[in-house]
Specification:
The protein is α+β, with helices and mostly antiparallel strands and 495 residues long. It has three domains: 6-240; 281-337, no CATH class; 339-495, Heat Shock Protein 90. It contains 15 helices and nine strands. The strands form three sheets. Strands 4-6-7-9-8 form a five-stranded mixed β-sheet. Strands 1-2 form a two-stranded antiparallel ribbon. It has a two-stranded antiparallel sheet with strand order 3-5. Helix 2 (42-70) packs parallel to helix 8 and helix 7 (198-216) packs antiparallel against helix 8. The chain is elongated. The two termini are 22 Å apart. 34% of the residues are buried. It binds adenosine-5'-diphosphate. The site of adenosine-5'-diphosphate has 22 residues, from helix 14 and helix 15.
């Protein structure tokens, strides 16, 4: 879905660099020049924590809901769990007064958040919607139960703070959580460098700041400036996540624009279908009817040769109508009988198309060669149809020569560019777009056809988010090109 974009990657890395430098220099200044300084301000602290908690809960729900449109995946479930756990526990932290429970809530929130984020190291996979909603809901509920229990019975908790200083348990829990976040940040960095997705950059920044806040925790004391520093880092992490909302909005808008364009296109298609029904299909029928009327008259007058000719013409018209109807059916099935994309080996696609055309290949004594072809995420049946239509045309539109056809594929920017080169009659420059339209036919008197084959190809390629075009040396042959985007899961795979 996303192309590797060098500007986004550079900008992302720059932001990360600035964050690391700002947090480390902030920590140095506080440690060396402002150590021993304290600032007690409970209302400000509670407000920061409450805002953080609300932000986390909103993000938990947002990440979860967004999957309805983008597919349910294990990584998103873990991220939603992380926000759900931090959001609920921070709510208790924000509403309690400084003491054991107060530190306990925050420490466990860091630990749980880090732990769930680190689970994104496990290979991502699709999950069912019911499975996706259950863990974050269960985590939020457990957070509420645990929070209430600890708030009412703080004596059951380990000692977290003594005379304003954090105990070893508090330091260990926060340090572990911080390390988890930093590991997750490294993993998001890896994913971001590979795919350049803005989401990964945002989660990377968030994990980095939470990680730094976690590892700076042991060096701080309650209300010290160090302590405020890691609060600022965590608050900054939530602020950084705000652009996430922007990306979501942008993604929905693009999605909507796509749907509107698709609706417009299908409306135009419907109009064209209506035209076919009223005009093109009527024409051969009228012709058949008039031939049969003539036939009727001739039979009564006894003209056997002419009778044969009329029957022949009528049969031709009927065959033409059959071809039209079956091509129209194939065209409409691209939309109505579309199958989900799967991993498809294009070598196998080509073999199947060649097999389907074997009789014509033999009759024409054609030679078909191919370079190794890649694997793509596609609808296998439609890929065979696409290849078969293009090869079928290459066999058809060559006059006296035996057809020589070559199929190959090269890797482009985020896509495979396939090409099918022939030595046929070629296509004049002004017709190179027209032939992809419905009923866009040239050479009507020389070659039979319906003019639907390339329109079907275009529809298939566009369903796969690709492009199709043709180049040609008139009289020397044509090369049809089409593209198929390289799916993230097949990044490294190719001939
Ligand atoms: P059909 O083959 O039924 O006429 P298509 O939609 O497959 O319809 O092709 C549209 C037109 O494009 C054809 O009528 C032909 O004029 C032109 N065309 C397609 N493929 C080739 C080719 N390989 N070489 C030359 N002309 C071609």
């Amino acid at each position: 879905m996303y192309r590797r974009n060098n500007i986004v990657i550079r900008l992302g890395l720059m932001i990360i660099g600035i964050m690391i430098i700002a947090s480390l220099s902030g920590s140095t200044v506080v440690n060396f020049y402002l150590s021993g300084k304290y600032w007690i301000h409970e209302p400000l602290h509670s407000s920061i924590e409450a805002m953080g908690s609300l932000a986390a809960l909103c993000l938990a729900i947002l990440v979860l809901l967004l999957q309805r449109y983008e597919g349910y995946t294990a990584h998103r479930v873990w991220i939603s769990c992380a926000f759900a756990s931090m959001g609920t526990l921070d709510l208790f932290h924000a509403s309690s007064t400084p003491g054991v429970a107060f530190v306990w809530f925050r420490s466990v929130a860091t630990f749980a958040g880090g732990l769930f984020f680190v689970l994104t190291l496990i290979r991502d996979r699709k999950v069912r919607p019911v499975v996706a909603f259950f863990p974050p809901a269960a985590i939020a509920l457990s957070g509420l139960i645990l929070g209430s229990l600890c708030a009412y019975h703080p004596h059951i908790l380990p000692l977290m703070v003594k005379e304003g200083r954090f105990t070893v348990s508090a330091m260990a829990i926060n340090l572990a959580g911080g390390i988890f976040f930093l590991i997750a940040a490294a993993n998001f960095l890896r994913m971001f460098l590979a795919r350049g997705r803005p989401d990964e950059l945002i989660f990377l920044n968030l994990c980095l700041l939470f990680g730094l806040a976690g590892v700076l925790f042991p060096a701080s004391e309650l209300w010290s400036l160090n302590w405020w520093l890691w609060h600022v880092l965590r608050f900054g992490a939530y602020l950084i996540t705000l652009p996430y909302l922007f990306f979501i909005f942008q993604r929905f808008e693009t999605g909507l624009q796509k749907i509107v364009a698709e609706l417009r296109r299908s409306n135009e298609e419907l109009e064209q279908f209506a035209y076919v029904a009223s005009h093109d299909l009527k024409e051969p029928l009228l012709s058949v009817a008039s031939n049969i009327k003539l036939l009727q008259r001739r039979i009564t007058k006894g003209h056997p040769e002419e009778t044969n000719e009329f029957i022949e013409k009528s049969l031709q018209q009927l065959t033409m109508m059959q071809a039209l109807i079956s091509d129209l059916l194939i065209y409409s099935r691209v939309g109505t009988q579309a199958r989900p994309f799967e991993k498809v080996a294009c070598d196998a696609v080509l073999s199947r198309a060649v097999e389907n055309l074997s009789t014509r290949i033999e009759q024409k004594q054609a030679t078909i060669t191919a370079d190794p072809l890649p694997e793509v995420m596609a609808d296998q049946v439609q890929m065979v149809q696409l290849m078969q239509n293009i090869l079928g045309n290459a066999l058809k539109f060559c006059e006296d020569k035996a057809p020589v056809i070559h199929v190959s594929a090269v890797r482009g920017e985020g896509e495979w560019i396939f090409s099918v080169r022939d030595n046929g009659i070629g296509i004049p420059p002004e017709e190179r777009e027209h032939i992809f339209e419905m009923f866009g036919r040239l050479h009507k008197d020389k070659f039979h056809g319906t003019g639907i084959g390339l329109a079907t190809c275009k529809k298939i390629v566009e369903r796969h988010n690709g492009r199709i075009w043709v180049t040609s040396d008139q009289g020397q042959g044509s090369t049809f090109f089409f593209t198929v985007p390289i799916h993230d899961s097949l990044q490294g795979i190719g001939p």
